[in-house]
Amino acid sequence: MASETSTWNTKADLVPLEKGKEKELRTRISKIKQAEVLRPGVVYVGHVPHGFFEPQVKRFFSQFGTVSRVRLARSKKTGGSKGYGYIEFECEEVAKVVAETMNNYLMFEKLLKCEFIPVERLHPKTFNGWNRKFHKPTRRSTAIRKHNKPKDAAATLQSAVRLAAKDQGRKRRYAALGIKYDFSGYDDIAKKAKLQAAGTVSPKVPKSGQAKKPEQSPVTLMLDSSDPEITFKTPPGVAKVKKVKKAGKKQT
């Protein structure tokens, strides 16, 4: 999870529920806690207001029951919250009560959207990295990844044309100074890139990736076993198939 400065006062009292529902809710939860076997339950929370991050979410929803894990969806580029997340409670029945009670609850001018997620619908990677601190990528690492990203045919053509244009300008400047400069490397690269973009020339395939030649089917030799004077010597790897003699038609 990312470390951010929250605008929510964690020392203040928790936000109270609607009048008349708080007593009923606590009665239902106390009955659920008396159960011997507890199964974890997950609640989806949407429309989470800004400033209501993982510590605040866990502290607020802990008033219903024990919260095992909290994970808010965050941007990979900025680390900012996307406004939705998942909360895992120790008891499945508590999670159902929370989804029913907190759905459409007004919080910081936003209506929370809560929904109970059954185990069958829960993705196995929902809580991946829930306890790991998010590190925002630096500009240097982003630039390196962008520079080393493999280029497609259009990007290769654009780069080759740009290099060829710079080389032509360099030749004109050298010619004005009386310097003979002849290098056609960039022109050849640009021509090859144009042909590849047009689809007339396919890129070379490395030796390790070359397709294997299709294997030839074994030669089949037909033998007639009715003639005992002829002996055939079959070379290795050749399958022997005996020719079945068809019975002649009966004359009427």
UniProtKB/TrEMBL annotation:
Keyword field contains Manganese: no
Biased composition annotated in UniProt, kind: Basic residues: 240-252
UniProt subcellular location: Nucleus, Nucleolus
Record-level GO cellular component terms: nucleolus
Alphabetical keyword list: Nucleus, RNA-binding
SMART domains in the cross-refs: RRM (SM00360)
Renumbered residue ranges of the record's region Disordered: 197-252
One MF term in the entry's GO annotations: RNA binding
Record-annotated RRM domain positions: 41-119
InterPro entries linked: Nucleotide-bd_a/b_plait_sf, RBD_domain_sf, RRM_dom
Superkingdom as given in the UniProt entry: Eukaryota
PANTHER family named in the record: MKI67 FHA DOMAIN-INTERACTING NUCLEOLAR PHOSPHOPROTEIN
Record's protein name: MKI67 FHA domain-interacting nucleolar phosphoprotein-like
